[in-house]
Amino acid sequence: MGGRCLPMLKQIALMKIKLFFLFALSLAIWAGCQTGPSRELPPEEREQYLRKGQDITKDVAVIMSTALTKSLNDGGVGRAAQYCSFMAIPLIDTLAVRSGVSIRRTSTKLRNAKNDTPTERELAVLNQYAQQKAAGQELQPIAELIDPQTVAYYQPILVQPLCLNCHGIPGETLTDADYDVIKYLYPQDEAIGYNLDDLRGIWSMTMPRKQIQ
To answer: What is the pLDDT of residue 126?
Structure first.
């Protein structure tokens, strides 16, 4: 009896081993499918989108800086803060339409949460830049695929002297009187406490991939 059972037990053991390997293979294939498509662009194409993104954000920054300076001169921090959070949006949208892209600003410290809350990917980019900044690394713009037809572009926004008028340290680079105005306009404001050259946020842009070929 024992002699007849031994081959059968060996067959059962082999079947269990095969089933285990089939299960492991299926799991590996499933995990691979969950990774999703690569965000990588071909090097030459990536450089093209980086140049285009930098050109557009440069144009936007120059126009916004000019308008913001005028707002400060005309109505002080109260007017400038409103411009930066509300009146700048139509301007950015106009420039974006003209360039055939979508562009916005976002940060981990928000002044206008209604318009500026980061997406999951934007938050990951913000955290990446923050870690690189803390490590003393130079922050570089990013161009990557969202899908085969769409490219995302991210560029860090560093605090400039003009920014300190509305985003500086209360009692130091941001006067108490100006901070009172900001708190009145934005009771939930978090966008203060910055020093010169701090990471303020990012430009986040999407471009149709067919635009550059």
So the answer is: 98
Are 112 and 85 within 8 A, CB to CB? yes
pTM of the model: 0.77
For the chain, how long is the longest CA-to-CA vector?
102
Residue with more model confidence, 115 or 164: 164
pLDDT in tens, 125-136: 999 999 999 999
Q: What is the 3-state secondary structure (H, E, C) of the chain?
A: CHHHHHHHHHHHHHHHHHHHHHHHHHHHHHHHHHHCCCCCCCHHHHHHHHHHHHHHHHHHHHHHHHHHHHHHHHHHHHHHHHHHHHHHHHHHHHHHHHHCCEEEEECCCCCCHHHHCCCHHHHHHHHHHHHHHHCCCCCCCEEEEEECCEEEEEEEEECCHHHHHHHCCECCCECHHHHHHHHHHCCCCCCCCCCCCCEEEEEEEEEEHHHCC
Q: How far apart are CA 56 and CA 60, in angstroms?
A: 6
Place of tokens 């002044």: 111
pLDDT tens digits along 78-105: 777 777 766 677 777 887 888 889 999 9
Domain locations in the chain?
43-211
Task: Give dist(CA 185, CA 82) in Å, integer.
Answer: 8
For residue 52, the model assigns a pLDDT of 95
